[in-house]
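Box 3.1 A note on notation
Throughout this textbook, protein chains are presented in two layers. The first layer is the amino acid sequence; the second is a token string describing backbone geometry. Keep the layers aligned when reading.
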Amino acid sequence: MRTDILRKTALTIAATAATAGGIAGPAIAAQATPGAQAATATVQAGRKSSERELNVRYEAQPNFYYCGPAATRNALSVQGKDINVDAMAKEMGTTEDGTNSINDITPVLNKETGKNVYKSVEISGAKADSKQADKLRDDVVRTVDDGRAVVANIAGTATDTDGTTHSFEGGHYISVVGYRDNGKTVTIADSANPNTASYRISIDNLANWIATRGYTAS
């Protein structure tokens, strides 16, 4: 029986090179994530927007095992926060084996936001079911509408809306910073490589990418 959700999280090693040309080197300068801008649809007649994207002050991860702290840093940047990834890595217990669990991310997000709003959610099976995908969509829309980003722990290969594959067989962390079509498509900020810093993926593909692991949302 598993006693801790989502172990073995986070190495963005050789698998990353196969998708996006390798991991960014140290001291990547901050840059705007392509496509990560403020809300793009107008609320009309008291109804919420069907799409929204948050402003991300993107930074790539400085090494192959810092995807957890880097994804958290990018997520917090949408709230105007700029927290040192080394400090967060220490809090998360990150080592060269990565960041163990999404449960190590959630307390850091809550500490830095000053509110106990983030909660870890597990997708325990090998594939997400429709109920889990619907919950993920609701969680993303609610969190982004509240001006926050979701952090997800993923593993394996997924295809984005442009047909590009992203493969992290050893596990990886990403930020979810926007949505379209009422959450059926979401925007990813990916710290692995600045050349693929931002892309969109269907909520169903994201849910299956998270399967066996989990995410944290408010």
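Strands lie at 31-32, 52-53, 57-58, 119-122, 150-159, 165-180, 185-189, 198-202, 214-217. Confidence is low (pLDDT under 50) at residues 1-47.
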